[in-house]
Design goal:
outer membrane lipoprotein receptor (LolB), chain A; 2 domains
Length: 411
């Protein structure tokens, strides 16, 4: 438990994802206190309106001033996403959808009297959703949705506002009911739909692997709405190769700079301590009269754990890509890249174990592979051990060494 607490502190900047989790959890608690009620959903998109009265999740009628083509399009989108009408302005359903995403990007926007949580998914029928929460009680006020077609193209955004004022003259057309099975099984003869961004990201990652740049934790590969973005800092002799190699790929944005340009362009948050390393005395004894040797030892440990973190992040990304629909040729190349990363991680874990033996004792590296989260934990603990630690760190030397041995061995 102490190790978990340390890891939460050491890397816990209040990120957009962390803030989104807190805000949505509060909104769900507030929502649970409200009884079910009949309400009006005012839906707007591309100059058209669809006003829908919701009596419960299934009983829905639209008012006479609705554009039935817009109502029908939203009905189909809800079907594809597995949502119900009552889910449109629901903190509970929004959080449930967000929690189920393998990859997501969160944005928090502070307004005068509300806060908006926006989550963008890397795949699926619902590409982006925004929930506006009232500042006073976290009650959902409005929602916006961007769905994608079966071919991966974005559709116009829906804006949904909930109103308690239900019109008396509900005239009436009934939108098509939502199908009982929101996700029908595809026909065996149908070809899988490949998201174009999956193909683009695969091409990008294979190029970076060929150049040996995918171990660099300061180089990020992120998805935007219609493009894959590569950003960060790399060795000076590698920056030009990356830019030229990616230049021929469609829908790729490259923002890569050499290491001597100053601050990193990537989102990697390095660990910053404010107190001496926990193994300060032990390292001084190992290199009593060798200042340069001591510096080289500390730097080598830092470099190894940074490289392991970059490899683990790339490994997680390759596994995610391989789970999606890929062409046989692309799947084969991704599998080969994954094998290379696995071999490199085994070698780096073995080297790290040997280098740490004077401090941690003999440790047999695990046969399995570190996830990005566990590699980040390992980097944090090693950094505290030999470089800098935090003055409010609750762990001592022995507990930190135990955590390092556990992460390396997997025991």
């Amino acid at each position: 438990m102490a190790i978990v607490a340390l890891l939460l502190v050491s890397f816990a900047e209040y990120t957009p994802s962390a803030r989104a989790e807190v805000l949505l959890s509060r909104a769900v608690k507030a929502e649970m206190k409200e009884p079910e009620h009949t309400h009006l959903l005012k839906i707007h998109s591309s100059g058209m309106n669809c006003n829908v009265v919701v009596r419960d999740a299934a009983a829905v009628v639209s008012t006479s001033d609705s554009d039935q083509s817009l109502c029908g399009r939203l009905t189909n989108n809800l079907h594809d996403a597995g949502w119900k009408w009552n889910d449109l302005v629901s903190a509970h359903r929004f959080k449930q959808w967000r929690d189920g995403l393998e990859e997501k990007q969160d944005t928090i926007s502070k307004l005068q009297d509300a806060t908006e949580v926006t989550t963008t998914a890397s795949d699926g029928p619902l590409h982006r959703a925004t929930l506006r929460l009232r500042s006073t009680d976290y009650r959902p006020m409005q929602a916006r949705f961007v769905f994608t077609s079966k071919h991966g193209e974005e559709q116009p955004e829906f804006e949904v506002t909930e109103s308690e004022e239900v019109p008396q003259d509900i005239a009436i057309s009934k939108p098509s009911p939502l199908p009982a099975t929101p996700h029908p099984a595809p026909s065996p003869a149908s070809l899988p739909v490949v998201n174009p961004l999956d193909t683009t990201e695969s091409d990008v990652r294979l190029v970076l692997h060929r150049l040996g740049a995918d171990k660099n934790v300061l180089l990020l590969v992120n998805r935007k709405l219609n493009a894959v973005q590569v950003s960060g800092i790399v060795p000076a002799n590698q920056a030009a190769s990356i830019r030229s190699s990616l230049a021929g790929l469609p829908n790729v944005e490259t923002h890569v700079g050499p290491e001597d340009d100053g601050q990193p362009l990537s989102g990697w948050q390095d660990f910053h301590g404010d107190a001496p390393p926990l193994a300060y005395e032990q390292i001084n004894e190992l290199y009593a009269n060798d200042t340069q040797g001591r510096r080289m030892y500390v730097n080598s440990l830092d470099a190894m754990t940074l490289r392991l973190t970059g490899e683990a992040r790339t490994r997680d990304a390759l596994l995610t890509l391989m789970k999606r629909n890929q062409s046989p040729a692309s799947a084969t190349q991704l599998r080969a890249a994954l094998t290379d990363i696995d071999d490199d991680m085994r070698a780096d874990l073995t080297s790290l174990s040997s280098a740490l033996q004077p401090l941690a004792g003999p440790v047999i590296p695990q046969a399995s592979h570190l996830t990005y989260a566990r590699a980040t934990q390992l980097y944090t603990l090693v950094h505290e051990l030999v470089s800098m630690n935090k003055s409010d760190n609750a762990l001592g030397l022995d507990e930190t060494l135990s955590g390092i041995r556990h992460l390396i061995s997997g025991s």
